[in-house]
What we know:
Elements: E1 2-4, E2 10-11, E3 25-27, H1 31-63
Antiparallel strand pairs: 1-2, 1-3
Amino acid sequence: MRKCKLCGKLHTDLPQYCDCGGDEFEEVAVKEEKVSQVETFKNVLSWVIFAVCIILSVLVLFVW
Ligand SMILES: [Zn+2]
């Protein structure tokens, strides 16, 4: 995988030029996808914690 430095488009083949005309690419390792999956998991986890906090605060409001 190569990523255009100009527009950030990903290319699975190895083109000389990108669609945007850029000719500078950087190699994108496959492991980056795993990192992004971990980031997604962290995002979901933070939303779950956020939801639990909201539910707890509502419960506190009703109890007090
Ligand atoms: Zn490009």
